[in-house]
Structures
1.
Amino acid sequence: MELRHLRYFVAVADRKGFREASRFLHISQPAISKTLTQLEQELGVALFARSGRTVRLTAQGEVFYKQTLLTLQQADHAAEAARRAARGEFGTLTLAFCSVATYGFLPRLVQQYKELQPGVQILLREMNPPQQELAFLQREIDAGITRLPFSKKLAPDLEVKSILREPLVVAVHAAYRFASRKLKIEDLSEEQFILLQRNGAPTVYDAILGMCQKAGFAPRIASEADFMQTLFTLVAAGQGIALIPACAMNQRPPGVRFLRLQHDDYRADLILAWRKDSQPSTLQSFIRLVDKECKAIRSDARQLLESAGRAKS
């Protein structure tokens, strides 16, 4: 028994004749008649009482008709569900994110995605870049908003979309004053540095050391923090200064202000990454949304950076 047999049966029952069903289905009358005779033989019951050119359902045909309508309706629903799943309208999307880097835009992005794809469950997992790399290798996440670069082992397996390139800014105690109005990296040579631990932010950690080395000094590291909030607490307590990606200013910690650096060439790359060989349909709609929102994300980042002051004498 095939679905087409059931559709032929319903067409004949609704139109009370093979000729009318033939016109409706655009299938020859003999083909329909033969198919339904085979159906009756398969079931072992007579579905129709034939009288000339008209037919009517038998008692058993009436029962079969009601159940057939339910079966066809469910089949149509199943087919539509499959098509919607193929379009990414159903399913799950597991997204990893760096909390500080995405604080300014991820909540809005997730809300927009939910409005576009209400049938998709989005699972958010906070992970730093090294944790995301491991999760990609173990296929635990569909995508991640993270920092470049990736290891040579993983990089060839990933597709990436650039979201944002941002400079580092200097986080200082709110009452701190530098001597120069134009703050340069070499002006920090005598300062106590507070860094995020390298195992959580290796790219930024190495960039800071490289910037200092290029300026001719090694940073005096007073302490290393596990989390950005801990780093801000130490800065607000006057324990030192910190170089951080500009996006971290979104947290607006009390007792801390931010200063711009002059002639800083380093940019922290924030990207959306996903595996080339594993692209669930739910991911495609998210990628398109990120692509659409990148302009707004970058505009917000520029405005945030403009809010950082210069050093004052």
2.
Amino acid sequence: MRKWIFGLCVGLVASAALADGVENKWRLEFSGNAESAGRIVLELAPAVGEPIRATVDVANGRSENGVARAVRDALQAQAGSRYDIEVDDGEDVLVKKHDGERDFVVTIVENSVRGVKIEADAE
């Protein structure tokens, strides 16, 4: 019984933390060119519902603009019509929910590409 109560408390704390960080629009800022091949994994998690996860394989030598375009394409393929995803200023990716969708959090799950930095900011 104690484990069940503990699990419930942990779940409630995690839900409250997620609800505090949700927004309707996010900017992913990419800087630096790929100095190695690697993988970027991003997750879009609505306040309630199933998260969307996108994986991008990045080739060595790819520019920050090329990485941003690849991430946009991968996110759009997974998100379908739930989010509007576009490249801004060449190296930024904007992710905005469509009407009727819940606010969400963007998480950088993995970035194994040397030289590429990603910053996620709510707008």
3.
Amino acid sequence: MQHATSKEMERLLALMELEIDYSDFQNHFSDLARLAAKVAGTDISLINLIDAYTQWTVSSHGLKIEQLPREDSICHYTIQQEQYLEINDLTADDRFSDKDYVKEEPHLSYYLGIPLQASGCNIGTLCVLDPQHKPLSPEKLELLKIIAEEVVQRLQTMKDIDMLKQQLKDISGAQLKVAHDIRGPLGGIIGIAEYIHAQGGNTNTEEIIEMMQLIASSGNSLLEMADDILSRKIAAPEEPFTLQMLESKLIQLYLPQARNKNITLTVSSADNGTGLLTLKNKLLQICGNLISNAIKFTPQGGAVSVLLHIVPAEHESTMLIQISDNGPGISPAQIEQIASGKAESTTGTSGETGFGFGLPLVQQLVASLGGNMQVVSDPEQKGAQFTITLPIHKQ
């Protein structure tokens, strides 16, 4: 069990390292999704990435879908395989025969999924589906595996491109900083030289010595600047990811989950004009896992609220993330388990399967950013509140 837990956490971290924004990928993989369906001869093909709670469809062909609870997903079982998973008749499989996508439109019967492997972990799947049985030849299966490898390669390439873009921004920002910082000392040297030249022979020794000291001081400033460049100490500030941008992303990604369970989800932010220097992907992972967890434990007709706030300070401001629900609440013993990182998976209010990795992942991410997480709940009063505080540097 410990080995399985370790492997799942490793898998989630491998997915997180790709820094994927699930809402921005449809156009990047549409050609591969279409090609997979063409190769397999199926009506539908999906490219899915699976986190602690959700299967995110980053590209699809033949079926309009953006996300699915992980417990309802066939691909949840595929990422546990080394090679692939093939199911010839979903209606005869007890795990899936009662799912809406089998009993109702599109009345799926055939499924084949191939794991997408990154850093030795299965982070998602390339799958093909059809209402009819579609036996695939070994040659077609190999072609689908090649397409799956191309999906992963493209994911890594896109991350590398984003890193190069950021490095170019850093270089541009560094050039501006160098130009700005050099102008002062150089201007001082030129000004002193022009003054000495203008005075000609009228400058006395004491004045010359004083001028030379000023020139030396300006020269030393330039040397320090050169040392900074050679030791790569100069860098442009990161492009800020504002609270308003985070608020918009969270609504886009998690409002469908809440609506699917008839839960009201509200997200509000108060930025105060302070930019964030915390990594966008980590913020999305922290908030997303907590929101999914809150939705899981909130009954139908309930409410989940998210507050994003920055408490400004002179040197190091604090970001506050507060996620509240009106579910059944958490006992003191469960809060202690969460704090110790030993929380066990439990079933959601509508029977959702728990996998037990969302909160440990949040704790690990929060700790890596130098923050902390607090949980407050009273089972008698109902509801729970998770509060994350993160240090941020002012833009």
4.
Amino acid sequence: MTVVAVTGKGGTGKTILSALLIHFISQRTTSVLAVDADPDSNLPDALGVAELVEKTLGDIREVFQVSRDEMGSTNKEQWLEGKIYGEAICECDTFDLIVMGRPEGEGCYCYANNLLRGVLRRLMRHYDYIIIDSEAGLEHFSRKTIDSADYIIVVTDMSKKGLATAKRIKELSEELDLGFKDIFLVGNRIANKEAEDVIRRFADEIGMKVLDFLPYDETIAELDLRGEPVINLPETSEYYQKAKKIADMIVELHAESVTK
């Protein structure tokens, strides 16, 4: 099992990259679980499967929170597991999808969240690849909601906030000793060689590996305006080809871990 979490500042393009990674890897194996952990829940649209999503984990958590006191001796973890398998897993053609949903409402959800984490960890063991479109920012690191990830891909643009978020993610992962195998940096919407050089110097300074630089692609904006999924990006697109290379790298990392 290889778990990849795609993260970074909001608006840097992490959902686009997540969707393309899922698309490419699921062409090589059907053992892929896509996890939309961003409260904005844009991943289903980017993958073109939004109409298949009926319930989120947030929906199930809300029902559990309201009704758990009435369950008596019912095994609550088994109840949650049954609900997740029966209602929250979207079985798409070449991958499965889970949408985490909006943050919890009033009251303490610690018990429900802890149960959910345990169920999700068991569920994830059934897949070779888990690709997580993470919540923007840093909270998921401080809360250790993606502590089971093997690899982190931080997506950044040329903005100061994007680079600052990438640096803080690297620092937090070390402070919290999360034990990731590696943390990579991907530059998105990078227009020229000068911009690439700036990001390379930045990555060297903070000790991160640069995977690649993705260009600005007008077709992505056009697809969004037409309400089409980003996976419809033409194969001739430079963006498409570079994202595919990143997916190939993940497959290679997985193969290496299996043979060890």
